[in-house]
Structure formats: structure tokens, C-alpha cells
């Protein structure tokens, strides 16, 4: 009887964890749909709003600029207000910014409300690692991977479904209505968050926290591990991913391969899901190791070269390779502050890392668009992405291995 009671108690305790895992995934989903629903409609935006390639590149890179600029202040606010409040506030801003973009179809309002939703995204995603540390101190890798799964699903559906939804229900040129459509699940996520997200720390265990309070020992290296170097890792990853998303439609239009755009965008984002799901089970064995960063970045370089110099019908293959490698890089990078920093510094580390990362990745689409306007060579938009992959290889080779984590997970 006692054993049966213990099993029943364990089952009751597992339900809050399952709900929180699902809630984290749903929040991650809604932090990406509004952003990744834009690249498929960029040709429509360029036509209707008479945008240059520089203006188009700025529209796609503006979210990374805003999130980079505000990440450190947001990290400080999280320390005062708490992660739960900041995620709720972030979801509210994302919903408002997404919806309001549909009301004023002009360049300045589009930029302004894109900045607003980007601020909301920064508030939420900077707080998530701290909440993962508090709620799942003994399962950081699993919780981070599940959150990444939600992000991936949001990216995939935002990129793949925006055009079909417009064509079948909203109207073929109704890009404003697509913004309204994607704002609805964000509001639902906010309601669920306010209802289900606990104010306490349900799975935090004092002994686990004490063991994680001190950063693990690291081997000697020319490059120290801190939020600034981690920011370059995640920034390079996001530059490759968001840059590819941003330019597929316009590049294919320029090279007369528009019929492949939906398939390439779908492959880029859909390929992330199986890799992300695999990372759910294996991320704990990869965290703290150099090899995954180097291998993934090399594969990104191969995919970019293949995109430019192989026949166009292979685009989905290269897109899938980029999508799969960048989500693995993202999952391994975003888990590092929760693993390496003291608990009270997790939000600050995350804020600094995201600031550096987003400012770095902001430059990609913007510089790519400027180079395209300057040279009239479509393929040159991929040059910043190749540079970012090279930076990841460099850091992957020189960053010190976290021996404590590697030994713990081997």
C-alpha cells in the first residue's frame, strides 16, 4: 500500500511539470509565428509599400536590432519584477505589435509595430532561461529543448502556412490580415500563462541549486567563456537562420525560381523540428562540447555554397541542412547561461548574451541588402551568413571546454 501511495504521489507531482513543459512550448511557439510569417510575404510588401532591398533588409533585421538593444535592460527588469511577470508583459506586447501592424499599411507604422512586438519577444525570451532554472533545476537540458521545440514549430508554421492561409481564406494579397490571424494564438498563450504559470518555483531543489551556484571549472583558453563570447555564438546562429529566411523569397524572385520559395522556406523550418526533437533527448550529452558548434557551422558553409553554385532544384536540400544545424546550435547555446551562471546572474547573462547575439545578427540582412543594392548581384546577400558561420567555427575551436559539464554528461 505504501508503495502504491508513493506511485500515486509521484504521478500527481508530475502533472504540474507536464503542464509547465507544454506551457513553455506554447509560449515559444508564439514568440516566432509573427516574425517568421513576414519573409513569405516580403515580395508583396516590397510591391505594395515600394520598398528598396535595403528597406526590406531593415524590416527583417529590425527585430534582432530591437531585441539586442533592450536585452540587458530587460534582464535587469527581470531581476526586479520576476520572470513570470516579464513573460506575460512580453506576450502582451507581441500580441499588440502583431495586430497593430495590420491597421496602418505604411512603412513607418510597419517598422514601429515590428519594433513593439520585438520588444515583447525580448521580454519573454530573456526571462525563459531563468524560469527554466527555477522550475526545472535538475532538468535544464530537457526543459530548454522542449522550449526550443515550441520555437521551431512556430517558425515552421509561420513560414509554411502564411501564404496558404492567405490564398485560401484571407485573400491572396491580404498580408495585413495575416498579421491579425497570427495575433490570435498569442492572446490565447497570454491567457494560459496568466492562468497556469506558477509564481513559486515548483521543482527547484535547494541541493541542486547549491551545486549549480558556482560556474563549473573550465580548461584554459585564449578566449574566456562569458556572456559576450556566448553572444557571438548565438548571434552567428541567428544571423544564418534569420538571414536565410529573410532572403529566400527575394533571391528566388531575382533568379527566376519563385516556384521553389515555399518549398525552400518549408524545408528550412520543417527540418528544424526532427533535429529539435532529437536534441530533446541528446542535448544533455552535447552541452559543453566544442565539436557540435564546429561541425554544424561547417555544414552551414557547405549548404550556402551549394545554394549558390548548384542547380536551383536542390535549394530545399540546402535549406533543410541550414535549418537542422542552426536549431541545434540555438538549443545548445541558449542553455548555457542556465548551466554556467549563478542563479541570480542567469537573467543578466541571458540579457547580455542576447544583446550581443541580436546586434550581431542584425547586421546580416541589412548588410546583405546594402550589398545587393550596391552590386546588383543577388547571391551576395549570403556573404554575411558565410562570415557568421566562420565566426562560429573560430569560437568553437577556441572556446574552452567546460570539463565539469562534459564529464557529467559523458
From TrEMBL:
It comes from Dictyobacter alpinus. It comes from the Bacteria. PANTHER family: 2-NITROIMIDAZOLE TRANSPORTER, PTHR23523. Keywords: Membrane, Transmembrane, Transmembrane helix. One of its GO terms (molecular function) is transmembrane transporter activity. It is a multi-pass membrane protein. One of its GO terms (cellular component) is plasma membrane. This is MFS transporter. Gene3D superfamilies: MFS general substrate transporter like domains. InterPro entries: MFS, MFS_Cyanate_Porter, MFS_dom, MFS_trans_sf.
Amino acid at each position: 500500500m505504501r508503495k502504491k501511495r508513493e506511485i500515486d504521489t509521484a504521478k500527481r507531482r508530475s502533472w504540474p511539470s507536464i503542464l509547465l513543459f507544454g506551457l513553455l512550448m506554447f509560449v515559444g511557439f508564439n514568440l516566432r509565428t509573427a516574425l517568421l510569417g513576414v519573409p513569405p510575404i516580403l515580395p508583396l510588401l516590397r510591391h505594395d509599400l515600394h520598398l528598396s532591398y535595403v528597406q526590406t533588409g531593415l524590416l527583417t533585421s529590425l527585430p534582432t536590432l530591437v531585441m539586442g538593444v533592450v536585452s540587458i535592460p530587460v534582464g535587469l527588469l527581470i531581476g526586479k519584477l520576476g520572470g513570470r511577470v516579464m513573460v506575460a508583459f512580453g506576450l502582451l506586447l507581441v500580441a499588440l505589435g502583431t495586430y497593430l501592424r495590420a491597421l496602418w499599411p505604411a512603412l513607418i507604422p510597419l517598422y514601429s509595430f515590428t519594433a513593439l512586438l520585438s520588444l515583447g519577444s525580448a521580454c519573454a525570451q530573456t526571462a525563459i532561461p531563468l524560469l527554466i532554472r527555477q522550475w526545472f533545476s535538475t532538468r535544464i537540458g530537457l526543459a530548454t529543448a522542449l522550449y526550443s521545440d515550441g520555437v521551431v514549430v512556430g517558425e515552421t508554421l509561420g513560414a509554411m502556412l502564411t501564404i496558404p492561409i492567405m490564398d485560401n481564406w484571407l485573400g491572396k494579397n491580404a498580408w495585413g490580415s495575416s498579421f491579425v490571424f497570427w495575433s490570435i494564438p498569442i492572446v490565447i498563450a497570454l491567457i494560459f500563462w496568466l492562468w497556469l504559470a506558477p509564481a513559486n518555483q515548483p521543482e527547484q531543489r535547494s541541493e541542486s541549486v547549491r551545486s549549480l551556484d558556482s560556474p563549473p571549472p573550465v580548461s584554459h583558453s585564449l578566449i574566456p567563456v562569458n556572456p559576450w563570447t556566448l553572444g557571438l555564438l548565438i548571434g552567428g546562429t541567428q544571423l544564418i537562420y534569420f538571414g536565410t529566411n529573410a532572403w529566400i523569397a527575394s533571391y528566388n524572385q531575382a533568379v527566376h525560381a519563385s516556384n521553389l520559395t515555399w518549398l525552400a522556406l518549408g524545408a528550412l523550418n520543417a527540418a528544424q523540428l526532427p533535429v529539435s526533437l532529437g536534441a530533446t533527448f541528446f542535448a544533455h550529452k552535447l552541452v559543453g562540447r566544442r565539436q557540435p558548434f564546429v561541425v554544424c557551422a561547417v555544414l552551414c558553409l557547405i549548404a550556402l555554397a551549394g545554394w549558390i553554385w548548384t542547380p536551383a532544384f536542390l535549394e530545399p536540400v540546402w535549406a533543410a541542412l541550414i535549418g537542422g544545424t542552426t536549431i541545434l546550435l540555438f538549443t545548445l547555446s541558449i542553455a548555457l547561461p542556465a548551466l554556467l551562471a549563478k542563479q541570480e546572474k542567469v537573467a543578466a547573462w541571458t540579457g547580455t548574451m542576447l544583446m550581443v547575439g541580436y546586434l550581431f545578427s542584425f547586421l546580416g540582412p541589412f548588410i546583405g541588402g546594402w550589398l545587393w543594392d550596391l552590386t546588383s548581384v543577388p547571391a551576395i546577400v549570403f556573404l554575411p551568413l558565410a562570415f557568421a558561420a566562420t565566426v562560429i567555427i573560430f569560437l568553437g575551436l577556441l572556446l574552452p571546454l567546460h570539463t565539469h559539464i562534459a564529464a557529467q554528461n559523458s
